[in-house]
Amino acid sequence: MLRFAAVEVGAGEALGCVRCSPRGAPAYYPLDDIIDRIAAASGAWERLPGPNVVLCGPEPFAHPELPALVAGCAERGVERICIETDGGALAVGGNAEGALLGGVRHLRVRMLGAGQRATDELSGRPGLSQKAKAGVRAFLDTADARGMTVAVTGVIPVCRHNLDVLPESVGALAEWGVHAARLVSSGPLPESAAAHLAAACDTGMLNRIWVETDGTLPLAASHLLHAVCEAGGDG
Amino acid sequence: MAEPLKVALLALNVPGYQSLALGFLRAYAQADQRLAGRVAFQTLDLTNDDDPWWVAYRVIGLDPDVLGVSVHCWSARAVFDVCRIVKRALPATRILLGGPEVGPVAISVLERHLEVDAVVRGEGEAAFADILDLLRRDKPLTRADGVTARDAAGAPAAAPDRPLIADMDTIPSPYLTGVLDPLEGRAYIEGYRGCPHQCGYCFEGKGYGRVRSFSLERIAAEVAYLAGERNVRWFSFVDPVFNLTNDRLAWMSDTLAPYAAKGVRLHTIEVDIERIDRQPAALLERAGVVSVETGPQSIGRAALDECRRTFDEERFARGVCELRKLGIAVECDLIAGLPHDTPDDFLEGVAFCLAQDPGKIQTSTLHVLPGTDLFQRAEELGLVFDSEPPHEIISTPDVGFADLRRLEARSVYIARLYAARLEGA
User: Fold this and answer.
1) How far is B95 from B91, CA to CA, in rounded Å?
2) Is the complex ipTM higher than 0.85?
3) What is the pLDDT of residues B370-390, one digit of tens each?
């Protein structure tokens, strides 16, 4: 319903399960190239509300010129600036405040699952889950203190390695304070997946956060309202 | 009863608001010659997140002979808690309720809440003054028209309906009489009562049936006092439709424009947006309006028909567009759970509102309010709702319990996604 144009900041992959596929070193694009893509996305925007852009691809906070990228979005009339991140960098220094002051109002925080077992082990980055939690809190607390309305969505790439911890992962996101969780397909799943996904959706409802799936994940008929099929929509 | 009669007036408001209703009740009673020098008032304008025991503590500390409470769906549960505690602590205190949550179901309220002595049905000012006069003379409350009270045996008994007040200016202004002080530089003004629409889910018109307006001179005097002497910079009108007629809108614009030029702003006034084109939009801007609230509530044809609402997509979009061009934010309201609406109908409504880029989208689930057409026809329409206030919808023939909660959660999230944006982009 509310669409974001995806602008990748480099070649490489966002946070994902290293057991499914090893992550290579990212190669970031030059600032001007990315700004051109932002301008193109903004200029071609036709459907209200917007334009809205999500900076994604390999971790945007590791891009050496992220502040200039965010400023470039604002200068080109982007109304909603989103960063898709693993969340860890937001806990560092003034990154959360800097992002907010630059105009970022949306975060998509990728996490692989609750606690060390999932995010830390599956990402191959020990300690990431604690940093991400602290980063999200820093972003939310700073926004609250400054009276800014923000939207933080937890994004869980669902694979066979984190399927059984999906409900507790959604519960963890609720504890972090995110506003919704988005479950996206990230590899083949066993037949039992629908039950885990339904349980994850129900966990969100019980913890007062919305949970949506990308429409390709198997869902029981009773839970079809959780499927958001539109590409680039909602979260 | 011994004089002066000690009267405590209580409202449990949504935080940030104060009760205009209590202001009207008190201003009217204070002007009643029968009560002059015989009644002493205290107003407790509290909030619905205050603990009922703390509220009761405040009331009991006043040791009132009479406790009058304004009851809305958002405050009713807490009000009944307070009344129960107060009655146990002060059995001689007479407890009177009024307001949209209790008036339409007065007998039921008295049957279920033994601590309540009387309920005022409909417009309260004249009935409340009559009750106070009857109480000070130790007469039965059932002598007051528009009141349902207990007879000698304690059974609910309804007096005849009371005619509506014909001349609204006979109700003194709570502001001009000093009964009500603006709260934190904000003030709410009532310009008229009644509603030209008869939407099935809504009780804003309070069953009055016709529109009765305060005189334009009275409204102008309130605005002048508040914006001038009291330096109020933030106004809202509680009228169901601010642009009731084009002539009235032009007059309001003329009246408010001088204050708007000095920085006075009108927030969240309700408008019939389908009647707004370039000229009415300009009048609203000139009046200092910065935000308006409107429907569509639903875009599902069957639901609209059942609720006696009209919806013209093009006119609605034009209205939003004209206001946005002038920098006026529009809050689009949608209700999940209206009769005949499916989940797809509701979500298409959300998508429609998003596509207008109005400024704000507000979604809620249906509350089947006493006095409304949907309340009376709930069984016929298959609407299952919580009998306890705020009477939230539980299920409809088209949407089950879980899906209603899902629609609520998803739409709240979408509204947040929409609201989170770079200001001035």
Assistant:
1) 10
2) yes
3) 999 999 999 999 999 999 999
